[in-house]
Amino acid sequence: MLANTRGFLWSDVETRALLDIWGEQDVQTALDGNFRNSHVYRDVACRLGEMGFERTPEQCRIRVKGLKRQYYQAKEGMKKNGHYRKICKFYDEMDRILSNRPHLDPQDMIDSVAVGDDAMDGTEEEAESGEHSHEAYMEGTGGECSYAEHPVKLESPSFPITVPACNSVLQRQNNAQTNTPPMARPKRSKKRYTNLSLDKLMEKFLEQSMEAEENFYKYEEQRLKVEDKRREAEHSRELQMLQVLGQMFAGIATSSPGIQHSQTLSSATLQRQNNHHHPDHISQNVAAAPAQPLVIERAFSLSNPHATRTMENLLPLVRNVIPPLTSKKHKGQDGRVGIIGGCQEYTGAPYFAAISALKVGADLSHVFCTKDAATVIKSYSPELIVHPVLDAPNAVDEVDKWLSRLHTIVVGPGLGRDEQLLENAKGIIEKSRGRGIPIVIDADGLWLIAQQPSIIQGYQKAILTPNFMEFSRLYEAVCRDSMDSSERQRAVLRLSQAMGNLTIVQKGEKDFISDGVKVVACSLEGSSRRCGGQGDLLSGSLGVFAHWAYLSGTENINGFSPSIVAAFGACSLTRQCNSQAFQKLGRAMTTTDMISEIGVAFKKLFET
């Protein structure tokens, strides 16, 4: 084995002599494509020896390999920086020699040097054995060695040798041709506000805030536009459904003349709903058979110039029953109403009911009250006829004397819950029922009916006007079940049927009116103010409308119940009075203020 010769230093003269020998054409030809090149470096070492430099073939090979590495590193580095040439001292000599050889990638050549080391290591023993023969040869020839006299023998192996380094070189060249590196994305410069002053930073912040606010309003406006389009689409679908229902009702009306008038109102409703400029509306649901309820809802407002035309379409039935004012009539012909109620504690309620009846259009208004309340009620107004007989032992007989002169009676305002008064009221109701007089029952009169429903049950000329609490009490007493507040229409219909199809007016946000067959909802715009005595105004005016409705006959109301027509007229009038008084006085409004508006409200609703 040869000793390790990697540590021996080469002088510049020795190196240039080595390059002159290694760069000769015959040496390069012998080295190209031949990995078993130990004999070539033995000859190179021999020539150096002839020049006076004693070097072994292994030292020559290692020196050439190092020079080649430095040369390729310098050549690769010169593409980036020209100073890389300094790392290879013999760059020009190496470039002259290697420039005539086939072009290879410098990096691949650097990588392949290690492969050459391994290949050369496998031939060290051969080089060692050849060195002794070379020394013997030199002694026999006198130390002369020339390639001209002794040409280098090219030895080729008898089997193919794989060259990984060359394959890697070709593969990298192919990859370089086919694969193009992706373009680097330019980096965005970061905004830096370190050097900005506080005022500039604040100004920048305000600008960004304003921009964000503008974007918010822009997006909000877009959202509202989308929402408006969605609502318009829903409204259009609802109108289409209503038109389909109108066509269905038209077919039903053709086969059922009894509800022809209701169908006419339904068609008018659809036409008004198609008009977007008109806020008033009316919707009707007509049953196909008499056993099913007919639900009519009327809601309107007088706050616009089109109110007159709207009222003519909505209130024709009520107008038909109102008697005209002529000079040919005598006193009492347009209505004589009796109010059954008024005790020591409650004197205002019977007064409100009686005076409301007069202001609506009744000619005479009688109040049958207790002796203690008579003077007080009489002092309220000289127009009232007051009878202090309600607490007398023969109260029923005293009132019965007047029943033949009365057109309707209103039982309950200010009645109280004294047993004697309730018993007398019961007798008066029975007497009036026997005479066929329309009866309106309100307030404490409803308490009496809740205790004894049979008093009025089955009498279809009776009209009950309960509020929410009174209706709940009456519903539980008659139907033996608790009321579902979410099903008010069904509840009022059921109670009316259970009471024998008498008319019930359930007062509330909407006034639901039912005679056991139909349900009418009056939702005329009133106000949010609810003052004591408002129900007395309703019951007093309802007594007058009931007389007019029954007097006019069924031909003027197109088959509807007179009680329903009368109840709808009274509810509409009460709500209109409430609205007018509230617009003037607001929270300070009282029932007295509402009563003072009856004349104007009546004219707006029924005479214009």
Describe this structure in words.
This protein is of the alpha/beta class. The chain contains 23 helices and eleven strands. An eleven-stranded mixed β-sheet has the order 1-2-11-10-9-8-7-6-3-4-5, sandwiched between helices. α17 links the parallel β7 and β8. α1 crosses α3, α3 crosses α4 and α6 runs antiparallel to α8. The longest helix has 58 residues. The N terminus is likely disordered.
CA-based shape: rod-shaped
Q: How many runs of DSSP E, i.e. beta strands?
A: 11
Question: What percent of residues adopt helix (DSSP H or I)?
Answer: 40-55%
What is the gyration radius calculated from CA atoms?
A: 60 Å
Largest sheet: 11 strands, mixed
Roughly what is the average pLDDT, rounded to an integer?
Answer: 78
* CA(first)-CA(last) distance: 136 Å
Low-confidence stretches: 1-7, 103-173, 175-180, 257-313
Please tally the helical runs, counting DSSP H or I stretches of 4 or more residues. Answer: 23
What is the topology, as strand order, of the major beta sheet?
1-2-11-10-9-8-7-6-3-4-5
Helix-and-strand structural type: alpha/beta
Amount of beta strand: 5-15%
EC number: 4.2.1.93
Keywords: ATP-binding, Coiled coil, Lyase, NAD, NADP, Nucleotide-binding, Phosphoprotein
Enzyme class: lyase
Family: Belongs to the NnrD/CARKD family.
Helix and strand arrangement:
Elements: H1 12-22, H2 25-31, H3 38-50, H4 57-77, H5 91-98, H6 106-121, H7 124-141, H8 164-178, H9 198-255, H10 260-274, E1 281-285, E2 294-299, H11 307-314, H12 316-321, E3 336-340, H13 348-360, E4 364-369, H14 371-380, E5 385-388, H15 395-403, E6 408-411, H16 419-435, E7 439-441, H17 444-451, E8 462-464, H18 468-479, H19 488-498, E9 503-506, E10 511-514, E11 518-522, H20 534-552, H21 562-585, H22 591-595, H23 598-606
Parallel strand pairs: 2-11, 3-4, 3-6, 4-5, 6-7, 7-8, 8-9
Antiparallel strand pairs: 1-2, 9-10, 10-11
